Amino acid sequence: MTICPLLQRNYNTMQPKRFLKILATIHLALCVGLVLCAVFAFYQNGDFTARMNQQDIFIYIVPIVAAAGYFLSQLVFKKRIESISRKENLSIKLRKHQITSLIKYALLEGPGFLALTAYFWSGNALYLIIAIALIVYLFVQRPTAEKIKKELPLTLEEQKQFDNLK
Known about the structure:
- There is one protein chain.
- By secondary structure, the chain is mainly α.
- It has a domain at 64-152.
- It is 77% helix and 0% strand.
- It has seven helices and no strands.
- Helix 2 runs parallel beside helix 4 (90-122) and helix 2 (16-45) packs antiparallel against helix 5 (125-140).
- The radius of gyration is 19 Å and the shape is elongated.
- 25% of the residues are buried.
- Mean pLDDT is 89; it is low at 1-9.
- The chain crosses the membrane at residues 20-45, 57-77, 102-119, 125-140.
- Keywords: Membrane, Transmembrane, Transmembrane helix.
């Protein structure tokens, strides 16, 4: 028994066009949020120094967390996509892809916010550069029909549904 049968029915019949629109909107919102946070941090701080302060704990934490977020996002995404069976119906594949994509985005967004917070507090340019690199990489992860077709194990019929989106 589901909590809301109407939501369950709509969720089970998700079509590629609707799925792509929802995922692209979420992705754009995450990117815009990071960009706005970066602009805010830059204009509030205004400092842009390139000196390394050995007493600053973020000098060690931010690069490690950023690298871990990058590599974990790739690893988790790959492992979860590989676990999707070709035999599952398209709605289940799309739901699993959506969840996996959101995990990937979160693993990139978290370190981005950490880097922006560290920049806001210290004014160290290294943190802003790391945040910008993560924002650019997150933006490049924008979901498209072509990427999804390559990532998911789709049948020929399911691939045709994605081809009709163009």
